[in-house]
Structures
1.
Amino acid sequence: MAQAAIELIGINKSFGAVRANRDINLQVARGTIHGIVGENGAGKSTLMSILYGFYQADSGEIHVGGKPASIHTSNDAIALGIGMVHQHFMLVDNFTVLENIILGAETDALLKSSIAKARSELDRLEREYGLEVDPDAVIEELPVGLQQRVEILKALYRGAEILILDEPTGVLTPAEADHLFRILKQLKEQGKTIVLITHKLREIMAITDTVSVMRQGTMVATRVTKETTVGELAELMVGRRVLLRVEKGESEAGAIKLSVKNLTVKDSRGVTMVDNVSFDVRGGEIVGIAGVAGNGQSELLEAISGIRHAVSGEVTLDGKPIDLTGKADPGELRDRGLAHVPEDRHHVGLVLAFEENENSILGYHDDERYLKGPFLNVDAIMADAKEKIEKYDIRPGNPRLRTANFSGGNQQKIVLAREMEQDPGVLIVGQPTRGVDVGAIEFIHKRLIAMRDQGKAVLVVSVELDEIRSLSDRILVMFAGRVVGERGPDATEGELGLLMAGVEHQEAAQ
Amino acid sequence: MDTFNAIIQVLDSTIRLSVPLLLACLAGLYSERAGIFDIGLEGKMLVGAFAGASAAAVFHSALIGLGMAILISVAFALVHGFASITHRGNQIVSGVAINFIAAGSTIILGQAWFQQGGRTPALQPGERFEAINWPGADAMRDVPIIGPIYDELISGHSILVYFAFAMVPITWWVLFRTRFGLRLRAVGENPAAVDTAGISVAWLRYRALICTGILTGVAGAYLSMVQNGGFVKDMTAGKGYIALAALIFAKWKPVNAMFACLLFGFLDAAAIRLQGSPLPIIGKVPVQFMQALPYVLTVILLAGFIGKAIPPRAGGVPYVKER
Amino acid sequence: MSTPYAKLPAWADYGLIPLINLSVAFIVAGFVVLLVGENPLRAAVILVEGAFGKGTGIAFTLFYATTFIFTGLSVAVAAHCSLFNIGTEGQAYIGGLGIALVCLSFDSTLPWWVIFPMAIVAAAAFGALWGLIPAYLQAKRGSHIVITTIMFNFIAASVMVYLLVGALKPAGSQAPQTRNFLAGAELPKLNWIIELFGAKIRSAPLNICFLLALVMAFLVWLLIWRTRLGYEMRTYGHSPKAARYAGISETRIIITAMMISGALAGMMALNPVMGDQHNVAIDFVSGAGYVGIAVALMGRLHPVGIVLAAILFGMLYQGGAELAFEMPAISRDMIVIIQGLVILFAGALEHMFRPYIQTLFASFSPKSVGMQAVKGTGA
């Protein structure tokens, strides 16, 4: 092995009672691309944030370039030539590209010379690495792919020799991701060391030289990428063989329960997020919507559930029209048999500060079952919550416990129990298993299929392609606010990937 | 000619009344641009006024007075910072607390030290900032139109007045042309970006609050050492809140802040001047209406009927590192 | 994450920590007393004796507490809906206008037990109305309610001055206030309750509003924790997005919460206006609305806590008056400092001592702390 660019020895980090990193050892060789994989919550980001000086380790040593390093702030890390591209970009939205690049790396107290220097340096970096971007553009007006490029330029401008990328492809289309990988390979050829954090095994196989696997805060293995397989890595990640496909029978699609015609939705800035979308969901089938995050799926769900007003479109629920352009609200839709498991359970689906039983009526709190006149029927609510805890195996089984104290999987079960037990005709689910542990994923998938088999219409939106492929009876792909294709459950990943990248869509437009 | 003289006089008092507003407004601009809501401007001005007048009276020096005003006002700003930056407390709550502590302690200490019912001793010449007469002001006085403008409006104010107006371009320059300003604006928009760039969010925000403290200190000193020859209890009388309103009115921009403060100062001057005397066409306007007008205008602005006031994005939210 | 800290037992959370915060506020206040050259311990003794030593003192303490219960509840109701109502002061002032109109119209013809309910309704309605406009602007136009309610305090002051030196002032009078109400608008005193315990009371303004305040405290508890409306307010207060998801109308809940808050603020005016002064004068609220902020924070937004905190502040007001008498260097403005310090330590610096307490608890019984900590950091 070549000389180690980074060496971590015995790193420990706890947040309160949660041990995010336990006794982690890691070596990354100079001039290589090293992948770190693990499920959400495995401690990858925490580890890298320690290396970048964003957090302090409780114990352990860091060596950079063979020498012991003490990294207390991001400044120390930057001085040692470490740069990081965060999952959520660390950019000031209403600043220009140049202003963002010089922030924290200004040459002197006045901006004039810093900006002049950055302009010429940026020019050089552009030529050297092919990272083109307009230096005077304002960040919020740039597409996501370019914003990420600014983040990479920021690190290079600060002289980064070691570049950490945290889930860099989460917001990118496959084509943009490919472009990013080409850039990373080029950086490697120039002698930079790259650490790539991801939970997507495909990316690891495609680009890394070596890979480390993390599970529940520990480093379980390090492999040379060429000598391992996706299967082995997946097993290491979850600790046992993954259930890749849920068992399910043929769908017996019945009558149309939810029909969406020419739905158009704009966001608060007036940008069209859902563009003239039409589709139907029948009873007894699961329709999955695939797509890279940010292509209008979230807004589509919000519009159908009444959270966000649509601009235009005709929607019928059980054959009866419903006005989503301003009159209908989530309460009314719920009354008409539409249940919604939202994408963001922390801020939308649950009130984390509430007791479990209070969350088990959220949205149904105006139901007569839970009321006595204007008062809450506390006994009925409590009995109801206990019943759901039993049925959905929610742990710990205490309805008086604050919801924030439940794990991600159990929180999701609280939401699912509430929505499914209302016996809705239509169930729409956003990111059914985001941040949920493997055991709960299986449970949730089985429940969704059970709903289907009871003849309910189920609409699932997920950015996890595997999940969409395993659950859906029909797959719709969204790109740039449009439904760009419909495929059966046997569609290949490559086929869907092309659709998600908008390839066919663009060809059709020309 | 009488009308002309009346206008000159109203404009002159507009300037005098705008100055404390302008200083406090620019003070608020530093802290709010850095992401810290500051409804404690009133309290910091008040302690500044008290400390300034007390020190000037005791040490017989206007400069020592000004120094103390700034020092104490900065100290209060740091308390605000300690609560809202270091301990991530609610910025509005700590601002309210500062206003109360300021209101109570100035009276208690004033009474204990000087025994004049909460007043500080009347300041003698040399203990307060005197008006500066510009060269040729006397000679110009009799020239029509330009004379009174030069003599009354431009010349004949204290150094603090010129300081306040000079702070407008200086603040603009600091904010948009210096490294400190770039970082300050960044921390008010996205503190995480500043943190990951290797800059301490807390220290940056503390420095912004120190700027706030300095300017509220000068504002207070102006009240007790220029406008009034000594401290009187509750002498800020809501000016900190009007400055806050002006800051919103100015959409957090320095030059706009000057115009907003001049407008509010003018309303105040006009209210004093009119004192219930009838206006042509409109008739008699109640003084209270004129006094309430800045607040009403700000509410109308906030309601979005005359443009939209968008505060700095990270304003009011304590910075917690991402989990 | 909703809370960056591990859990403490409830008694520490609701008892120990507020107590420590309060003690620190008083210790700092003690230093101010030292600074003016008096003995803080002696001051404390005078203060407590002044408030509780004699029947009259107790009656005054409870009279002030009554006012603060109303304003504290007002701030708390809005706060449960995550609205910071700094406008309690102005809403109470305008509430006084409602009372004035009722009393001036009917005090010569109707008995107090008819006028009182009418005055309650008028005070609540006027206060609610003054809360309505900032609420509407927040809900519909996104105007920051902290700023608008501050502005409305000043506007209320201007309106009241305009009326009290104009239309409401009796002809020929110089004082900026209404005429004194007749017997029909005077509320019965409650001093006899204290006299039951054998204490003597010379004259004190403790009146039936105290009972009204206690009833309102109970009703607020019922509202917040036992009604659908309260559930909706708390949902919105914790997460506006969850409220939208749950089909709760943002406009309706903000306006309702602010009107209830404004109504409680308005009812505060009953106590000094009908129970004590028997007129409406300039600045009769004199900061009680702002005291409500301190009371609500100290009472941790719970009606029981608010009643206790209000009594504490009542004690400070009454004891402070005695203190000013005994120690000329200390005027009643000492209370304003204490109030500020309480807001600082029980509000803005609420969590300052928490980590230390947690460490302390952890060292005694590791099991009680952190076992139920939030799972799922990192990603």
2.
Amino acid sequence: MAERILSGSEVVLQALADQGVEVVFGYPGGAVLPLYDEIFKQNRIRHVLVRHEQAAVHAAEGYARSTGKVGVVLVTSGPGATNAVTGLTDALMDSIPVVCLTGQVPTHLIGNDAFQEADTTGITRPCTKHNYLVKNPDRLARTMHEAFHVASSGRPGPVVIDLPKDILVGKAPYMEPSQVQHRTYNPVVKGERSQIEEALEMLASAKKPILYCGGGVINSGTQACKLLTEFTRMIGAPITLTLMGLGAYPASDKQYLGMVGMHGTYESNMSMHDCDVMVAIGARFDDRVTGNLDFFAPNSQKIQIDIDQSSINKNVPVDIGIVGDVGHVLEDMIKIWKAKQYKIDATALDSWWDEIEGWRGKHCLSYKQPKDVIKPQHVIRRVHALTRDRKTYITTDVGQHQMWAAQHFGFEHPYEWMTSGGLGTMGYGMPAALGVQVAHPDATVVCFTGDASIMMNIQECATMTQYRLPIKTVILNNRYMGMVRQWQQLLHGSRYSESYSETLPDFVKLSEAFGFTGLTCNNPADLDDTIKQMLEIDGPVILDVAVDDKENCYPMIPSGKPHNEMLLGQETDGNEAIDSDEGMVLV
Amino acid sequence: MKETEISKHTISVLVDNESGVLARVIGLFSGRGYNIESLTVAEVDADAHQSRITVVTSGTPMVIEQIKAQLSRLVPVHKVSDLTLAGPSVERELALVKVIATGEKRVESLRIADIFKARAVDATNNSFVYEIIGSPEKIDAFIKLMAPLGLSEISRTGVAAISRGTLTM
């Protein structure tokens, strides 16, 4: 096929179209004006104007995480690019495929401290999976296609393409995606068969097996989640999910133990601690999951399946590490397990389940809803109950409300849970919800947030109004940075240094000022009606719920403690202090 | 785990010779707190635009495994080879060593240079610049002996390494 010569901007737009991109989240500026001009002239690709570049990346993340596609961001040079850095780091930590186009000053000005110049590739090198500076127009089309390949294959992640203005204005040849082959980057997807056989033999001989699964399963796709469910039911073992893995396995299933980790369930963490064979699938032994490494699952053999070799043996040494795509490996595992007619010893498995039922009997997530004040957990549970008959997507910000949402909202399907797990970015929730609602215009999108987190990207209310995105934002308002307050209570002698929200806006008036509805609720008796009212409104809503300001998030594995030393909270009225210097230095 | 012993490894990395590739490698080491004892880089295949980076690092077996996995997943990296584990290998380094001295010390430095097969590549009435090629240990030994003889400046290339026999990357 003969090369077509277009303008640089036309090449960029053509490449986006050929990559199947439907929507771009962005914010214009001097260096990207040629691209915005091109966007103006066409109808194939929709542009959603955010109000801050960080929000553009979070929106793209929400879009990507809820669809399985690549999220696309367009920002200008200098401050546009530096504002995007938090979002890029967030996407890197949570392995979310994002392609971020940044404007750059013309090539002849690079390095001259020109107006709105920043060393974007230098700044974003450690917070992207890969980045490019396009200095040669001949490489523009190839770079665009390569970036989508890198962002979406292997362990997904954010990719930045820095585009100098002269490249966008000048002529450049276009080539189709099929004409581009990557020279070096071709990740392994198929697991080594001998290792899979060895792993299954180990699993079949287990007496106390557990499956510990993470966001990698969701990244592998809906098919991988189906295979995981099939495999789990076939072998009869208990399964736990990480924060990023919620939805990979149906929460209502009896083999599901709940979330694992710092605020995971008692039964999950005890099972992790006492298991004899652990199979980690698309999970990376994060410190929020493992607690104190010296006491992590001390009597277990471990099998780990991950597409990223560097995730294997990073924090926790494993006995068998299988490099491959979770979906492919699970497919092989199911075939081989059936072919070899493996079965975990039924008596051993029964007594393991008996033990687990004992832990379940603690009802570690239980709470009492009094008549006078709304418990934050109750809000999550009621929203869950009242949205059950709808297709619902949940995003969160970061802190106590995030953990309560993870604990109390039962996720049955993948792609319905968007949260900032690795980086823990306050301000993620509302922009991520924008991305989700753009991708699923007819679905119910709820953003659970806190009174502190919501203030960190509050400007996106304007975007919600502009695009009539009917996002339901539920603030669990305890007038504190709740998780900070909880740690100060537990570790710093209840000295609540700077964690009180002294001057919060009136969220009803604020909503009205942005052009949509604001609701409040402070009476437990009104909660259901207010939630229903919120869900019935055909437009954005902020619901400000005044919740118990002293409520702590339990269960909790304090930093530096092993899984079997959880604080349950129930017996202690939340007044326990942790006497640990070691814990205090950890985050 | 008994594997807490720290050992030194020489790792060869074949990369695309593109801008920023060295920064990616160095950034990976500093960002993750790994050690670089020596690092060399030069283009080895001009037609394919490929460079070879040789890095000497140290760590526990788990850390070394991490370093190799982390290097392998960089997009412009073609191959990573741990020469220390791959089999016998040859390691060479070049050093230029300036010695400023007169009289007996000057003569003594020449005698030692002769024993080490170091060449004087520059000479004035009161100085020599020696060029020495060898293993890093040999160069260390040479420098140590020159220290009391007027050693005043050292420039070392860092290690270039390749496996012995027919084995290739």
